[in-house]
Amino acid sequence: MVNLRSQAKKKVAEANKENEDVVAKKAKLEKFVSEKVKTKVPKVIKPDPECPVLGFKVYQKNGRIYDALLNQTNISMNNNKFYLLQVLESEKGPKTYKLWYRWGRVGYKGQTNLREMSLQGAKKEFEEKFHAKTNNVFGEKFQKFQGKYDLIPVDYSRQDEEERRDDLEDESVPCTLDPRVKNVIDLISDLKAMEKHLKRLHFDTNRTPLGCILKDQIKVGYKILSKIEKRIIGKSFGGEFHALVSDYYTKIPHYFGMRPPSSLQSLEDIKDELSLLEALVQAEAIVDHTKKEIKKINPSDRNYQRLNCKLEPISNKHKTFKMIEKYLKNTHGPTHKDYKMKVKNVFELEKEGTFNTGIDNHQLLWHGSRLLNWFGILLKGLQIAPPEAPITGHMFGKGIYFADCASKSANYCDAKHGDIGFLLLSQVALGAPQELTKAKYEASNLPEGVHSTKGIGQMEPDQKKSEYITLDGTKVKIPLGKIVEKEKTDEFELLYNEYVVYSREQVKLRYLVEIEFEVNQ
């Protein structure tokens, strides 16, 4: 009798556990579906622009969108291909459905197939094709399989935001900004220029429009690049290396035309790809994904408001303007003879943020960057490379880099003759720096009591000619003496000084300097 009771209890316990497992699985599935639906999906998702239909939209039901952009790169086989699948639904009148495929080499229109079908038939074939190409069940959490296509994630909410922005932005509405400020905003928020820049870096903007590549995708790109970097340093170029390179191009779609994809076999190649990923981060900043506006607004005003950073033009007769002109002129390095710089405008910056006033030794130092990075810089401040990014290009570890030589920073503007570029002057709390004469990639691991790194160069501004100003009650050094060469320069790897801090709280943005470049022809 006791035995029968224990058996019954055991069966009840097993049944309860089975029910709990079912409930848990259901909850997990509901959570996954809800997370997918959290991103606001527009009611109307447009078909592929290459699809020759009018009055159709992508079919979606209960958060499941019958649209898939697949990508596969295999550098060993010279494969760099895409596959696009869509089920389309008529927007008006009696419901009709079409199945659209487009496939081929990245950067080309490729082959197409468009057929009218029943809804059930179109969904069934779509799901079968998706499984054949990826080895995944459509609608379930995606997992990449070796030798199969990868799914490129798409942020559909951007389509709604772009349309809303188009509705709200109106160039006929007068701009309220100072013309000098408006010019800056228009220069740094130029999406067409950003798109051209990304194309020069071989990014496929046709299939992955600006702002539609997700942050997680960029993060994965950084991680794969770090693995590739380690194998380059270790000279390990076997099958695993080629698989990593193929995986990177699959995650971050590139356009190479009919040429084989680059095999990424040098640290210079890694630097180029880092430039691409950094540009994608900046594109994310420029592309609008903010709260809904309630009234029409001039596009320049709207972009300025998004920065949450005040730009106040300084008169060219003001002593601050004159001081910055002097700083720029005096600290143009003698080895940088191929261009000249002229200060066009200076803007005082005012942006909220935490600044660590508990660290002393404040200096006003230069930072340069290419034109299309400035929207992100003014929006988010100067950033430190993420942990998953490769160390290549970071001579003294991952931090925020500055110079006391204006032309050293200007080299990062990547400017051509007649171009406008920008340099930033920041108040940097250096505290007690560690002084280094050569590269140290782990320099960010600061000893106790040390707050920054100073890479010592062969040349620097004459320290006896430095000036001082007071900013918000703090004495700040401006090393604006003319560049002089030090004695015994053989031990220094750098030509000019570099300053690196590893906390954003040691930096306060002070002045944005608009520069006209005159490059020797």
From TrEMBL:
It holds the Pfam family PARP_reg. It comes from Bursaphelenchus xylophilus (Pinewood nematode worm). Keywords: ADP-ribosylation, Glycosyltransferase, NAD, Nucleotidyltransferase, Nucleus, Transferase. It is an enzyme of class 2 (transferase). GO terms for biological process: double-strand break repair; protein poly-ADP-ribosylation. GO terms for molecular function: NAD+ poly-ADP-ribosyltransferase activity; NAD+-protein mono-ADP-ribosyltransferase activity; nucleotidyltransferase activity. Residues 298-521 form the PARP catalytic domain. It is found in: Nucleus. This is Poly [ADP-ribose] polymerase. Belongs to the ARTD/PARP family. Residues 174-291 form the PARP alpha-helical domain. Its main location: nucleus. The keyword Nucleus applies. InterPro entries: ARTD/PARP, Poly(ADP-ribose)pol_cat_dom, Poly(ADP-ribose)pol_reg_dom, Poly(ADP-ribose)pol_reg_dom_sf, WGR_dom_sf, WGR_domain. It comes from the Eukaryota. One of its GO terms (cellular component) is nucleolus.
